[in-house]
Amino acid sequence: MPLRFAEPAPEAYQFPLTIRHLLDSAMMTAPDQEIVYRDQSSYTYREFFGRIGRLASLLEGVGAEQGMTVAVMDWDSHRYLEAYFAVPMMGSVLMMVNVRLPPPQVAYTLNHARAEILLVHRDFFPLVEAILPSLPHVKAVIAIMDGTEGALPSYATGEYEALSAAASPDYPFEDFDENAVATTFYTTGTTGNPKGVTFTHRQLVLHTLVANGPGGGSKAAPGFGYGDVYMPLTPMFHVHAWGVPYIATMLGLKQVYPGRYEPDLLCRLATDHKVTYSHCVPTILQMIFQAADQTGKDLTGWKLTIGGSAMSKALCSEARRRGMEVLSGYGMSETCPMVSMARPDAGETDEDRIVAQLTTSGVTVPLVTAQIVDDAMNVLPRDGKARGELVLRAPWLTPCYTGDAKASETLWHGGWLHTQDIATIDPDGTITIRDRLKDVIKTGGEWIDSIHLEELVATAEGVAEASVVAIPDAKWGERPLAVVVPKPGATITLDALNAPVEAAIAEGAITRYARLERFEIVAQLPRTSVGKIDKKAMRASYAEAPQAAVA
Amino acid sequence: MPLRFAEPAPEAYQFPLTIRHLLDSAMMTAPDQEIVYRDQSSYTYREFFGRIGRLASLLEGVGAEQGMTVAVMDWDSHRYLEAYFAVPMMGSVLMMVNVRLPPPQVAYTLNHARAEILLVHRDFFPLVEAILPSLPHVKAVIAIMDGTEGALPSYATGEYEALSAAASPDYPFEDFDENAVATTFYTTGTTGNPKGVTFTHRQLVLHTLVANGPGGGSKAAPGFGYGDVYMPLTPMFHVHAWGVPYIATMLGLKQVYPGRYEPDLLCRLATDHKVTYSHCVPTILQMIFQAADQTGKDLTGWKLTIGGSAMSKALCSEARRRGMEVLSGYGMSETCPMVSMARPDAGETDEDRIVAQLTTSGVTVPLVTAQIVDDAMNVLPRDGKARGELVLRAPWLTPCYTGDAKASETLWHGGWLHTQDIATIDPDGTITIRDRLKDVIKTGGEWIDSIHLEELVATAEGVAEASVVAIPDAKWGERPLAVVVPKPGATITLDALNAPVEAAIAEGAITRYARLERFEIVAQLPRTSVGKIDKKAMRASYAEAPQAAVA
Fold first, then answer.
1. Model pTM?
2. Predicted ipTM?
């Protein structure tokens, strides 16, 4: 027999999983709840809903249409949150611009995504000014003056608040195909240009529903839910700020958007608004510790999800000593991002074991299947010993790299998304990342292309051959280390190695985070059996101390 | 411009929202977790997954196909849970048979759903024996002997455990259209035969994800999550046991299935397995109190969601006094069922206000929109005063009453699902059910058709005219009250009124819960302005005490 299908009543409502519907219950239950921006302003959800309509109206006024890319360059703000909703809800595509990329790469990503409308915070006017001549598709730039009175740049179509105030809050949002693309952003890999990933309405709604899941049963890893006050500490241009702004809004929680991150202000906002939940990379957590020490901020009861790079056991213990409730998660740009979360055993009381559990990559959340495979896609055992590439299935994985058929095929080879991370999986499902296939350095939440960096270093005076690897760093997660074979008789200095790097930073060809602090001299670079430079061996040799899993 | 769609990589995995995928993370994370059946047996999830495969294999062996209805008549058991998964996962339709209906109505529902395979617990052999001659579609009956050794009935194809043991655990479950029907069951309304509702794979997955949502932030209404131990106290044939078996399995929780409800055993199981979460109608909660008093069971920390009918403030206070964490929810057969949940303000400390909040119908969960409307579908204000019919949109509402186009049209008139409940909505979204359009009496979780009952009463000796209304009852939620106009000079007795009711019970034409305990004599029945019998007025007159919202 064929599958059975119901015959819906003629007027039965067909419910699409579109981002618009994430607001359904918040509209009913949280009209008077507050959304705060820095120490500058706050408004109610009622006003927020109106401003979503206003943003859509003003964007339509400057030419936005369904299917068009609208790009945002802003710090974490209520405006960004408005764009998270308004842009996809009108059927356009929200592009979250990584403003930390070198300007030519920012331009590359805007052009590749065919961004036609830009929303730009005044801090990024110099960046936009520099690249605007190379952005042929852009037809409108909305300036975000952020409370200041200065003149608009000549290329600006108008100012966000002024245009918003003049626009109608009653934009006629409608239902449409849940498989339409809602968001796009770019991820920097080992080689070549940044790659575009996309997520559909359906994917983001499902991600929101699952990432909203429980944890409430475990004292060691309490849930995020009603009554919490949320402040993001992962930039909103990084993988949807891990999807949490969508969850917090769906739940109608009080939200605090901190603008540009300033450790003292973060602590003050956390205190003033009784923030209970945030998420960040380890580097930010360390900054919070420092700021708390300086300001006397009590961190007790602040729940933090840590991702982006490894949370060391020392960092985890320090956070717990200060009364914070931390746990680590694993995900990547290609995965929306949520894949797995640490989940301590409910009954566990041994602090060392709790910390050990909290600092793994955790276990998969609902609807996610993870496997480890060998090169031939054979599934390896979940015995805590076998190492293989971590591959994934979930409803919210990017279906491709935009416009890059070859990379897309590689990404989805064999019907599973390839993370390029090497992992073990315990019998209880705990995933531990052991190594990675791609040679990229994650520092303070930013990625440095090690191939590019070693090409630069190789041109430095006195260098015969060079390689760059990531080494664990207590503050930044990872930092680059140059491993150098000198020319005969040459003396290598850090300044000499950094000379070509500094030049590239000045040109905007590489991020300033690439500047080296450390190098090692060797007689020859280690090689694998097939003659490739053995980065894995170098990473092992030069890591300063054993570290927890790199998530 | 058209909406934008991505071009998926050729091998990108298209993830359907099918029930099979609810097992994805549990398979990774909970292989050694336990599922318990009464004080009889327990097994691991690993075995459970194998038994899902075995059940599918054995069903295929007796002729099950995609699209075919497989009906279950069992108490709450691990077997029922296996059927919750195996039947939909193989593309068949799981019918949850309401075994409390009168036998002719059970037969009606099985025939209407074209059930071809029955799984029947031995307690229901007499029922099946009585109706089997009137079930032309049935081609196989699997007997559930539940550990006893007796002979199989002659009509049985085989015994569940024996067939399961002989079947292969490796059934090749495959992905298919998420909009295929997964489950069906029947709801008894005011008039006519029971009506069939259906839910698709997509609907059940979405319901599971949302019902799995948080609450963890509120001390007064803690979440259900990892670390909890689950025991259903709503029958699994009632609206998917409110969907919780799907959630508990997705999360890989320890689960305890109590079989036929016996208050002492429920308390013992709760103690032995440290049950932390259940859900039930108020009547069951009262039974638990009694059993706890008799056995000395400490109820502290047991979280309970109450629905099906009103939780009175007195009952709520009593539960809290005993250390239970209770809250009420609202839903119905047509809604899968979750619509709304009580949600006390996180900061509320006043016990009276907490109890008042916990006993409303609460606020809508994510993706649900509720409105109150007048007869012309005009939306009424959410001011806590205006009363209108509660109408709903959500992704998991039944699209129709199976095979009943007229009732389906009425259900979905104007593009909203009509609950036939009259409600107010507060500005903060709190829904309070005030009355209802449909004249049905909910008693101990069962429904009595008041129209049918009053037709019976009207035939009693000495009765000129009669109406039957629901009145609140502390133990049963509601009980029927007959309002009677005697014939001139006639004396009315309870026995006389019950005589035709008893006859109908004996015939299986109406449930035994319809037997009357109370009646009122009036000179004439109250009428509305258009001459209809005013049941609303009678309910108001004869309610013994003011009650909280009837959910």
1. 0.88
2. 0.88
